[in-house]
Amino acid sequence: MKKLPIIHPFNVSGKDFIDDKIKRLNLDDINIYKNWNINWVDGKLGNYTLKLLENNSNNEKIIKGSVIVFATGHDIFKPNNHDFYGYNQEDKIISLFELGKILRTLNNVNAKKSNLKNISELFEVEEKIKNILIVQCIGSRDKNHYEHCSKYCCTTAIKYSIELLKRFPKVNIFISYIDIRTPWKSEYEYTLARDMGINFIRGKVGSIDKIDDKLIATIYETVVQKLMKIKADLVILSTALIPNSENTGLLDQLKINTWNKGFIKSKYAKLRNVETSRNGIFACGTVTGPKLIEETINEAKAVSIEIMKLFEEPELFSNFNITIVDPEKCNGCELCERICPFNIPQMIPKDNNSDEKKEFLAEINPFSCRGCGTCNAICPTAAAQLQNYSQDEIFAQIQGLLKDSEEFSDPIILGFVCDECAYASVDVLGLLRKRYPKNIRLIRIPCGGRLSLLDILKSYSEGASGVFLLACGENKCHYIDGNIKGKAQIEAAEEILESIGWKRGRNAYFTSFVADNNKLHENLIMFAKKIEEMGPTPLNK
Ligand code: SF4
Ligand code: SF4
Ligand code: SF4
Known about the structure:
The protein has 14 helices and 25 strands. With 541 residues, it is α/β, with parallel strands linked by helices.
C-alpha cells in the first residue's frame, strides 16, 4: 500500500496514509524494524526465529515470534521497450502508477513535485495535452507475462480519467481494453466516465509509432470491426500487479506454497484464505494476489482474529491425520527429512548409552506436520506412518477392493485419488450422474505424494490389471509438489514392470480439478478401454 501514489477518496499517497496509522499505534508494545532486512527465518508454530540485517551496516539482530504474518504486498510489472510500445524510451509513454504520481502533484499544492516533472508541466500548460490514450491489461491476462487479471487497473484507470477530465475538460481520453472489469460500486464510475465522454475502445493496441511529435496508436476495434488510428499526446500503460520479488528467498526457506510466479497460495481459497501452507504463518493483502484496499483491510482483520484465537487456546491441538515415527523401526536414514515439502522431520540423537557411533532418528512435530504422507511413501522401514492412511490400512483397502478380481468379468483398475481437488472432481462426476466404468475402484489418499511404489506393486499382486494416480493439476498441489512425487512413483512402476517383460501403459497419471470433470470422465473411460485391450497382467493369466 505504501507504494500507491494516491489513495481515493483521501487524496494522499499510500506512504502518508500508512505513516499516519503508524503514528497512532501504541509503540510501547510494538517493535518496528525500519531499514532491516530478513536474512534468515526458520522454526514452527509457537517458535519462529528470524535473523535481521540492517541496511548498509554489519548489524544483525535475532528476533523470535510465535507466528509470522506476510503483509509484504506486490510489485508493479515493468514493461520492457520491445514488447510494450517503447515504454522507457519515449517519455510520453508512462505507466498508470506514474500517472497517479502526477495526479497527486497536480492535486496537492503541498505535495513535492513529481519526478515526472516534464509531463506535469505539459498538463499545466493545458493545450499541450489534447489526446490521452490509456492501454489496459499491460502484462496482465497475457500468456507471455502474467495470465491473471490485476483487478485494480480498470477501476483505477477510470478513476484517474474522471479526475483528469474534471481538471482538464477539453482533453480527449481513450481507453483501449480487452474487457472492462468494474465490480460493485466501480460500475457507477464506469457509467459516469462514459457519460462524461471518455471513449472506450474494445481492442488491443497493435503498435504505437512516433510521427513528428505525435504518438500514433493502431488498434483493431472489435465491436465495430475497424482498424483505428489514434493520435495521442500521452500514452498510459495500465501495468499488472505482480508478486513481490523480495519474498522469494524467504518463501523458499519456509517452503511456503506459491502460485502464479510467486503469490503466496492460501491454504484453502474459500475457507482459510489468510492461512498459508505452513502452520503459524499467515498472509494478507496483495501478497496472495491482486486485491482492492478494502479487501486487504478485511484480510488484515481476519489474520488478527486468527492469531487471537491461537493465543486464547489453552493448548494447541494437532490434526489427527499426522505422521508419527516409530522409533523402533526408524533407522535415521534422513529420507523423510529430504522429501518433506515443509521441512518438518528433523533428525535427533537416539537415546542410546553406548559409546558406539551416535545414531539418529526422525522426529516429526505434530503441530507442524500437514499430513500429506509424502514421507510415508519413501520411508524404507515403514517407520513413518500417517494415522489415517497407514501402510496396513492402505494394503487392507487394496485387498478388499480386489477380493473379487478373479471372478469379476472385467479387468479391475485401482485408482489412487488425492483427497483435495482430485477427489472433489470425482464427487462431481457422481453428482452429475456421469457414469465411469464399473471396473474402476478408488482409494482415497491425502495427497498424490502418499502413493508409493509398494502400493502399486501390492495392487498388481492382489489382482489389479491397471493402476492410476489422480492428483491435483500442475502447480495446484496443496502440498507443494506431492503430485509430481506421486507421478514419479507411477513412472518408476512403469520402468520396473517393463524390465520384467510387462508392456508399458498399465500405470497412468491423471490430474483434475472440479471444473475439469469432462476431461476426467474421458480419461477414465479411455484408460479402462486401454486396460481391457491389454488384457490381464502376466500375474493374472
Ligand atoms: S482489471 Fe482490467 S485492466 Fe486490469 S488486468 Fe483486469 S481486465 Fe485488465
Ligand atoms: S525415512 Fe523412515 S527410516 Fe528414514 S529417517 Fe525417516 S522415519 Fe526414519
Ligand atoms: S506427512 Fe507430509 S508434512 Fe508431515 S512430515 Fe511427512 S512429508 Fe512432511
